[in-house]
What does this fold into?
Amino acid sequence: MKKLLFAFGLIAFLGAGVSAQGTTAPADAKVVNPNAPTMTFESEIVDYGTIDQGADGVREFKFTNNGKEPLLISNARGSCGCTVPTWPKEPIKPGESSVIKVKYDTKRLGAINKSVTITSNAATPTKVVRIKGKIIAPQTSPVKETAGAPIEN
It folds into this structure.
C-alpha cells in the first residue's frame, strides 16, 4: 500500500511540475524591440565574376538602416584570413545608408566562396553575407619576335 501511495504521489508531483512549466515564458526569451534598427542589403551576395590573379579584391555591401533607432555594427568577421571586412564605426541613423567593404586576397587562384558575419544591435543581431567568384592566372601574351634589320644584297 505504501508503494502504491508513493507512486501516486510521484505522478501527481511530476504532472504539476510539467503543467507549471508550460504556463511561463522561458527565462532566456527576449522581448523584440519594435523600434530596433534593421539592416537591409541591396544584395547579400557579391559576385566577383572571373577576375585575374592580383586584381583589385575590394568590393562593397551597401545597406540601409530601415529601423527607428541608430544601427551600431560591433563586428564583422571574414570566414578566413583572406577575407577582410571594414565596417562603419559610427552609428547609422534611421533611413541612412552605408557600406561594408570586403577585401579578398586575389593572389589565390581558384573559386571564391567566403562569408562575412556581421554583428550589430539590429533586430536580427547576426547577419551573414557572401562573396563568390573565380580567380584565374593572368593571360600573358607571347613574346613577338621581331625580324632583324633587312640585309642588303
